[in-house]
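Illustration: Serine/threonine-protein phosphatase.
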Amino acid sequence: MVAFFFVQQVYTPKELHELVKLTMAIFQKEPSLATMSPPCTVVGDIHGQYRDLIRILNCRHGNDVRNVERHEKKFGFASTRFMFLGDFVDRGSHSVECICLVFALKVLFPSQYVLLRGNHETKAINFAYGFREELLNKLGAKDGLDVWEHFNEAFSWMPVAGLIGGKILCMHGGISPYLTSLNDIKNIQRPIVDINDNKLALDLLWSDPLDHGNVHAINENPQFLKNALRGLSCTFNEQAVKECVNKLNIQLVVRAHQMMENGFKFYADRKLITIFSAPRYMNETENKGAILKVSETGAVSIITLKARKNGVGLFFLLL
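Result:
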């Protein structure tokens, strides 16, 4: 049903409904704060870029960085734990292939793959930014709409944050003034059909760090301000991140949600990092993508993905 090389996939509505049903049943058994033990790989926004998703799934690090063109007996997708930070769909032209691939991997390797919810895994957003239209085009109006509704039902059950080794907190958007302990996330009730119904979940999917040029970014007091750019949720400054890390007794916050020229960017004295995994985003920019590797000992390395064939770079950061 799903190939690990690039080819136009053809799915029947029956296949898609069955895949969604199986995946949703797994989500329903998972906590709102998913957990994973290192070593593992953290992946940011994919946005329908199927070729890049396949590259990511087959990346190795250290002296063995490679992508799917270099065949191995056992590819990375079958031997590595992955935590995805959401935004699988919309923007790119292969959202259906991307979400089917990660859902299939979740069914095949349920404990090996954590799929977090991004803001594009919400009905109001993927109605407007490509996923719904792609399903209608590929399946026809009636079947496409039915499958789209079913996918969004599954999205409503997805975990909203993940914790790696008890020390690295991951989410799609960012921190929140409503986040005072990890139990706050654990206590989030799902399904969340309308993300606006839960303020903490909304921020975990939507919030952003204040730009370094903002006068409030380096304020000595923790600050959460209205997110004027998004029109909902909040922005937060460096001190808010540092206070959150101390309060939750963690080392690092890993989030996605924003395109970064180099695929990643640090914030708050390296207490937070943004990871964006879609190089040459929407075929409109020359940005790199990036993924984050967490070793068994807690060392963190960043693999950058260039927007060209065989383009994989490696950058190391040790915590």
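Reading the tokens back as a structure: Residues 13-27 form the longest helix (15 residues).
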